[in-house]
Amino acid sequence: MASVQMRAVAVALRLTRKRAMATPERARRRLAAPKGPSTPPAALGRRHEVTVREVGGFRCTTVAPRDRPATRGAVYLHGGAYVSAIAAQHWALVSLLADAGVRVEVPHYGLTPEHTYREAYPFVETVYRELLEAVAAGDVTLAGDSAGGGLALGLAQTLAGAGLPQPRRIVLLSPWLDLTLSHPDLPAVERHDPWLDSTGLRVAAAAWAGGDDPTDPRLSPGGGPLAGLAPVHLYVGTREICLPDSLALGERARTEGAPVEVTVCEGAVHVYPLVPAPEGRAARRQIVREIAG
User: How confident is the model over 111-130, as a mean pLDDT?
Assistant: First the structure.
């Protein structure tokens, strides 16, 4: 059974977030709205070494331990349906990773409708390539949540073609694996999701695809190649529409012998490791150990 705090979070999300993209009209207004700042919070700079640089026209923030050399590296790709900028809960996880000795690269990829995946991939690939100049691939993790989790897996699937090595591991929090949102179990699960609405997500997906086939693995990496990938650990809750595709990825991985582990948290909402509840705190501790250990 979900904790009292997780149930409270679900109620709050249903009251404040569910309606935001519940119709195509609302979704289009969301896409057209200002994206919000991507500037790291001031507290992050007081605690860690924080630098910002431009890579191919987009900003990338590096957060590294202040008091010791980094022992691991990570690229963290934030969620937000490819529509929203990085949020406070993302920075909080990045800070925990830096506390544990991880140098974290946070690429601020261009958001839709102004930008599409066609610009995101070369940008995040360059960020990954530059991180490997400082940290060996065997010490690097690709990580991301929601839309960023889909982008992280899609990037991993393209590394061989770019002549780049796989990272040490891949950590995905409620990844958006299929932009078509066509899994037959999705409608039943969606009724219990207090946050996400497939109607609005389809509008965001079409904008992010920019007219291209949404089944392309760079857009829907749940159907992309699993052979040769680094070990994947995927976290997902039972009260979110990312659950069916996450379970399907785990099943396909077992069939193909790919190293994909799926952790399912009963009663948890979307990106539950970022949620202020006991389940979220436990998952955050595990994720930090995985990436920093």
Answer: 98
